[in-house]
Amino acid sequence: MAQITETELKRIEFIKQDSIEIASILGELSFQKIVIENQIDEQKQKIAEIKNRESMLFEELKSKYGNVTINIETGEIN
């Protein structure tokens, strides 16, 4: 029965090993991507909460002082 050379067989093994390594790296990167996307979603939620608190405070100040401009460094109302 005919066989390929030892060099050809080694080349096939190297290609197979490279493919396995790349598949492993892609799996790890996909996992990291999911983790990062979850962290981004958490930060977006925090931003939404901050915006909500900001909006509530502005409404509170508007009802107390009317439609005015406030210097946020000094607290002075114009």
Q: What's the Cα radius of gyration? A: 30 Å
Q: SSE order, as H and E?
A: H
What's the number of extended β-strand segments? 0
Q: Whole-number average pLDDT?
A: 96
**Helical content class:** over 70%
Structural class: mainly alpha
What distance separates the N and C termini?
Answer: 96 Å
- The oligomerization state is single chain
Main pleated-sheet profile: none
Percent of residues in β-strands: under 5%
Which term fits the overall shape? rod-shaped
Low-confidence stretches: none
> Number of DSSP helices?
1
Kindly list the characteristics that best describe this protein:
78 residues; mainly alpha; 1 helix; rod-shaped
Can you characterise this structure?
The structure is a single chain. With 78 residues, the protein is mostly helical. It has one helix and no strands. It has one helix at residues 6-65. It is rod-shaped and about 95 Å long. It starts with 5 loop residues before the first helix and ends in a 13-residue tail after the last helix. The mean pLDDT is 96.
